[in-house]
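2024-03-11 09:14:02 INFO receiving multi-entity request
2024-03-11 09:14:02 INFO entity count = two
2024-03-11 09:14:03 INFO echoing inputs for audit
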Amino acid sequence: MDKLEVVNLHKMFEGAPLLNGVSFSVEAGETLCLLGSSGSGKSTILRIIAGIETQDSGSVFWNGADISGIPVHRRRFGLMFQDYALFPHLTVSENVAFGLRMQRVPRAQVEIHVREALERVNMTAFSSRRVTDLSGGEQQRVALARALAPRPHLLMLDEPLAALDRSLRVELQEELRELLHQTGIPAIYVTHDQEEAILLGDRLALLHDGRIVQSGPTEEVYRQPANTWVAHFLGMTNLLEGRVLGSNPLMVATDCGEIGPLSPEYTGLSAPGQKVYLLIKPAALKFDPTPSSICSISGEVADSRFLGDHYRVFLRVCSDTIMEFTSSEPLPQGRKLSLNLQPDDVVLIRE
Amino acid sequence: MVRGLVKAFKSSGVLLWGAPLALLLVFFFVPMAAILKVMFERSGAIVFTDTLRPLGFTFYQAALSTVLTLLLGLPAAYVFARYDFPGKHLMRTLNMLPFILPTVVTAAAFNALLGPRGWVNLLLMQITGLQVPPVTFLNTFTAILVAHVFYNLAIIIRVVGSAWSQLDPRLENSARVLGASPRRAFREVIFPILRRPILSAALLVFLFDFTSFGVILMLGGAGFATLEVAIYSQALHFLNLPMAGLLSVMQLASTLIILLLYGRVSHGEDVPLFPRLHGEGTRKPRTLLEKWIVASVIVLLFLFQVLPLLALAGRSVIRVEAERGQRTEVQAGFTLDYYRELFINRQQSIFYVPPSRAVVNSMRYAGITTVISVTAGTLLAYALVKRPRIRRWLDPLVMLPFGASAVTLGLGFIIAFNGTRLSSTSLPWLVPLAHSLIAMPFVLRTIQPVLASLPESLRQSAAVLGASPLRAWWEVEVKLISRSLLAGGLFAFTISLGEFGATSFISRPENPTLPVAIFRYLGQPGGLNYGQAMAMATILILICAISIALLERLSHAFVGND
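2024-03-11 09:21:47 INFO inference complete, emitting structure
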């Protein structure tokens, strides 16, 4: 079972620490999405794994063996560059054949593998074209075929869709997702787009301030962000600052009054007096109080926007905090209402 | 282990630029130092006031030549940038030809058209029955100016024309939509954008006119001494090396100032001699005025640039005057005698060198020059692109030979190496070495931008795909810069073939190059010598034409590459 492990990577960049102890692992059959804002060092991690750059300290293990001493061209990893880096002097099929030629694969075999790789990305018709004549999406496919053709042990993709327009991106996301699952090669997918990460990643690893601040199965990360940065980065903005009043039952005091009791899963995690954040889910818009309601917050509709299949409602709640909710019907601006939250609607984040 | 080796190789950038720099130190700075040494040690031989006339005249003729070149070049640049007309491509190639033509050939071409034995005079004498040539062109100031315009039109047309044609037509359109008349749009939008390319092209033309040597020596004659000609005659005729040294220092200082100015003006600007061509924004001339402008530019270019070359080629295959010593009337007509004569040793003298020897010499020197300058130029290009830290001091250093004139270099060579063991044992190498120094900046400037434009990711992705560093370099980088290597090589070959200024100093009498031989034959009496000079010059034109055509093809191929 192939497994890549990255342990405690450190790297300085222009005098400041870029990577400050990065650790994670990927196994065969799964795609890890490395998510972080631009400039956070995501690409640097890929380049260290590929061997193009050297870490200041820390190690990269492949199946348990430290590969730091192995030069780039002997690692047999695939890396798809953000700008694709197709060789402009070679045709589409020559580009795809490049890695196979480097492995001294017999010529007849090379042809077969190239054809297979091009079929996989639906680019067979382009095989003798110059890569410089291709559109962005076509180049992206060729780059993918080139990375896959030599059957790398590990596939790394560095924001492969960033340069494409939206509709093409959505189309290619689907294709990529299918392809990654077909091949079963462990893959690391770097992106700053959380939607892409949800779709493609079996697991997420979030990079912030030179560290992996959270990693785990995609759904788990979404259900329970580890801190407010992760919540913000994943687009969850309904945060309320608060202080724990009592831990059994778990009650939190906020600007909007006391909220609780919260779901018992948080009970052991917080002590009275502790500062916490409450994350309120956008789907939590319920007007009628029920016996299980844990609070009733009064608010006023600030705006309501049509988004195609649903509405986004902006609610002004206690002392001018704006929260976003989804709603199946429009709400008139200025309408007063009260927000009745259920235990499931609130996530507790410790700071 | 392997990583250690790779690291050692990477950090030892000195491998890259060390050898070319050593070449430069020995064969450029040592000669320059030798000039200074002679100048200071024997300063008694210097009459400072004698330098003022050539200095003043050099500036004067260069300024006037530049203005005239602009006057004809700007309309031509406009026509090439904005209009399509039949034969445009051929015209463009022909226009480029004079730029790389050896000065001797240029002199021979104007000689064949307007000289005392040229077509125009022969024709007028035939018509009027005069016994003396009615048109005096050689040894006049006009001849110098005309030849300089002939030479440098290409620079204006290329630099300004390419900037003009790459100018987004929408700029002009939006000015018009905003209410500007065509004239106003030109004055307020087009001209301000073109001002920099025009200025930098003009400075380049000024530099070439300033350092012009062969043209002035052969077409201007003794009456018009520029710094270059003064250095030449002080050194070779009056044997006053200190005086020649002082003139060289003045020449070097002036060209450096011009180069600095040029660097300032063209800073951050791409001034390619072989720019990409594209058809956007060009159209057929429509109004009568447009047609008239296009037609007159074509006619003028033809008169200035093509006619002299045709006259030269014609003169090499048509006999029109008596051989030396013959007093009888000659049968005028087509002949290949002048070419045949190149390979026959007529005079049974040991000082006589058959022209075929000059052809062989030139080819050999050009071959050696190509190898040396492409190797050194490529290494330097690598050093400049991959080691930005050393670029600051290395770049101006390697461009210095570009500023030093050929005659100065030649003078430095004979002062530094004459009478040394080096000269007696390896003089044949001095000529290609001097040529390499002159050609290297051109080679460097051809390869460097292409190398700099290669993204790092190409080599990295080759490595990720399993290519060893050496293999990645060979399969990706070398393949991608091969065209510019070829172009640089062609440049070097052509430059060496036509080089006259430095060669006239350092080539031995028994081992002339083609330009030196042409110069000698032009100076000798008799129709046969004249015809042979024409034949050799025509051979040079053909080689230059082939090389220009190849360069054009290469530059076209570049366009398809990105």
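2024-03-11 09:21:48 INFO post-check: The domain at 237-350 of chain A is CATH 2.40.50.100 (OB fold (Dihydrolipoamide Acetyltransferase, E2P)).
2024-03-11 09:21:48 INFO post-check: The first strand of chain A starts at residue 3 and ends at 13.
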